[in-house]
Design a protein that fits this description.
Shape: globular
CATH class: Mainly Alpha
CATH superfamily: Cytochrome c oxidase-like, subunit I domain
Main location: membrane
Helix content: 55-70%
Number of strands: 4
CATH topology: Cytochrome C Oxidase, Chain A
Protein name: Cytochrome c oxidase subunit 1
Structural class: mainly alpha
Pfam families: COX1
Strand content: under 5%
Family: Belongs to the heme-copper respiratory oxidase family.
Radius of gyration: 25 Å
Organism: Paenimyroides marinum
Order of helices and strands: HHHHHHHHEEHHHHHHHEHHHE
Strand order of the largest sheet: 1-2
CATH architecture: Up-down Bundle
Distance between the termini: 29 Å
Largest sheet: 2 strands, antiparallel
Oligomer: single chain
Length: 600
């Protein structure tokens, strides 16, 4: 059957060349996974620019509260920033939108959407995704979701402002604050669409990996990044529907008078008719997605780092099986730790101790991964290109950010620093910065595969070092002001004399943020300039072993002209004794008596 399947896809891919592709079929309604990955990436980059710009606005506000800034009235208009002074409700709205955009539209879609689409078919030896049409649809629904989310910025009452976690009652009672109105409704519609596209994509990725692997590509010969992307898709299928149900119930509370999440609400002294609901129920539903979501964001970055570190250390990845096992363990554990976000919600303290236990367990597979990356680097012949630097940076921020997770995962310790800057410092390092580093590593590493050209190395070095210094410059001091009790999401702390000493620290943080953001322009220039004018890439510029580098540089629909190559070995035969080259591609047959790394 598989031979017939290969023949069919083979003939089909030749037919494709006879129809001349128009601009619309090639770049817009494309069903080619390589083009769809570029669509996801560039949309993600645009959303990232918007998300980072928002963070700069509120960082300026925190560093110099009550002061007038031309940029505020210019960007936010006189309604939201009268006389250049930001209004407190719009501050909350910007924080909400920044969180939503970065977590879902940049890190989730930018990493999974881009790299699952690009790498899964290429690395397992498939002509394309299982369903090209569903793949195209998932991108278009994603784009629609982005547009609806951004359109809420142009509403009279402003965008949603209940925080990116949209807890009721702020999100459930439309008249609570200005941002609870139309902006909140658009947020919910946008997220419902986002979840739909995410599920379509995830199902496609899972089916493709299970059904379309080429001859000889067993599960234990797949590169770790494919494992990471596959497991990420599985987590998405399990947990995203729960957020969809929460969003639908919230829409019913808002528009149809139900009270799933509301009880005993007083608004301006008036008793509202809601009774019997519970806002804590919403927290359970939200975090049942919200915590696995952290791993949906970080697992692709881990997979990318494994791949890039092994390739550039010229060494086999250390502990391949342990890496897969830890990915599976993280995926399982991530679904039973959501309660650690709710230690101060009035949840039963006994339940808190259960969640503390499961949360601390997740440190074990995470540590396994960190040790394995470090051991792969150990005594390697390190090629320090930008992709490698960002991968090593990801290991660094993942470890330093993960250490504070041990404090936050413990219910008794968490209560003291909950809702302070300590929490912000922790999750920005461990998932925000680490995931962004993974994304940058992936872009530098697979750029030649995506665009057939190389990015400028020296600009890449500048980008990495400034970003690395500024990331720690922003988030390290936050641990200390958090320990000192500075609460998050306040647009000014000038009402509390005890926080006066920290205004200087906030100014330092904001300066680092402004410099770090400015140097992302170096990356943007490098990226868009190199697409058109970069040095032409050779077929296998990093001398890597995996299948994607066996396809020709110029893209064809169907990936390989002629037969799909057969796989004989795992993806990490670097510096293998007895071979002239320091890498042995997966397509090279095993010699007599030679062991296959994946199948010990």
């Amino acid at each position: 059957m598989s031979a017939v399947g290969h023949e069919l896809t083979h003939d089909h891919s030749h037919d494709d060349h006879h129809h001349k592709e128009t601009f619309v079929t090639k770049y817009i309604f494309s069903q080619d996974h390589k083009m769809i990955s570029k669509q996801f990436l560039i949309t993600g980059i645009v959303m990232g620019i918007i998300g980072i710009a928002m963070s700069l606005l509120f960082r300026i506000q925190i560093a110099w509260p009550e002061e007038s800034f031309k940029v505020f009235s210019w960007l936010l208009g006189d309604d939201f920033a009268p006389g250049g002074v930001m209004r407190n409700d719009i501050y909350l709205a910007i924080v909400t939108m920044h969180g939503t955009i970065m977590v879902f539209f940049v890190l989730t879609a930018g990493l999974s959407g881009t790299f699952s689409n690009l790498l899964i078919p290429l690395q397992i030896g498939a002509r394309d995704m299982a369903s090209g049409f569903m793949n195209m649809l998932s991108y278009w629904i994603f784009l629609l979701s982005c547009i609806i989310m951004l359109s809420s910025l142009f509403i009279e009452t402003g965008p949603a402002s209940a925080g990116w976690t949209i807890y009721p009652p702020l999100s459930a009672v439309p008249e609570a604050i200005p941002g609870s109105g139309t902006g909140m409704t658009l947020w919910l519609i946008s997220m419902a669409l986002f979840i739909a596209q995410s599920l379509m994509g995830s199902l496609n990725y899972v089916v493709t990996v299970l059904n379309l692997r080429t001859k000889g590509m067993t599960m234990t010969r797949m590169p770790l990044i494919v494992w990471a992307l596959w497991i990420t898709a599985l987590i998405g299928i399990v947990s995203f529907p729960v957020l969809l149900s929460a969003a639908l119930l919230l829409i019913m509370d808002r528009s149809f008078g139900t009270s799933f999440f509301l009880s005993d609400i007083y608004l301006a002294g008036e008793v509202l008719h809601y009774q019997g609901g519970s806002p804590v129920l919403f927290e359970h539903l939200f975090w049942f997605l919200g915590h696995p979501e952290v791993y949906i964001v970080i697992l692709p970055a881990m997979g990318i780092s494994s791949e890039v570190i092994s390739t550039n250390a010229r060494k086999p990845i250390f502990g391949y099986r342990a890496m897969i096992t830890s990915l599976l363990a993280i995926a399982f554990l991530s679904t039973i730790v959501w309660g650690h976000h709710m230690f101060v919600s009035g949840m039963n303290p006994f339940l808190g101790s259960v969640f503390t236990f499961t949360t601390l367990l997740i440190a074990i597979p995470s540590a396994v991964k960190a040790f394995n990356w470090i051991t792969t680097l150990w005594k390697g012949n390190l090629q320090m290109n930008p992709g490698m630097l960002f991968s090593i940076g990801m290991v660094s921020t993942f470890i330093s950010g993960g250490l504070t997770g041990i404090i936050l995962g413990d219910s008794t310790l968490d209560i003291n620093v909950h809702d302070t800057y300590f929490v912000i410092a922790h999750f920005h390092l461990v998932m925000g910065i680490s995931a962004l580093y993974g994304m940058f590593a992936g872009i530098y590493h697979w750029f030649p595969k995506m665009f057939g050209r190389m990015m400028n190395k020296n600009l890449g070095y500048i980008h990495f070092w400034v970003t690395a210094v500024c990331s720690y410059g922003v988030f390290l001091p936050m641990h200390f002001i958090g320990m000192a009790g500075l609460p998050r999401r306040y647009y000014t702390n000038s009402a509390f004399p005890m926080f006066d000493d920290m205004i200087d620290v906030n100014i330092v943080i904001t300066m680092f943020a402004l410099v770090g953001a400015a140097f992302q322009l170096v990356f943007l220039f490098n990226f868009f300039y190199s697409i058109f004018y970069g040095k032409k890439a050779s077929q296998n510029p990093w001398r890597a072993t995996s299948l994607e580098w066996t396809t020709p540089v110029e893209h064809i629909h169907g990936n390989w002209p002629g037969e799909i190559p057969e796989v004989h070995r795992w993806a990490y035969d670097y510096s293998k004794p007895g071979y002239d080259e320091d890498f042995v591609p997966q397509t090279v047959p095993l010699r007599d008596g030679e062991k296959d790394g994946g199948h010990h």
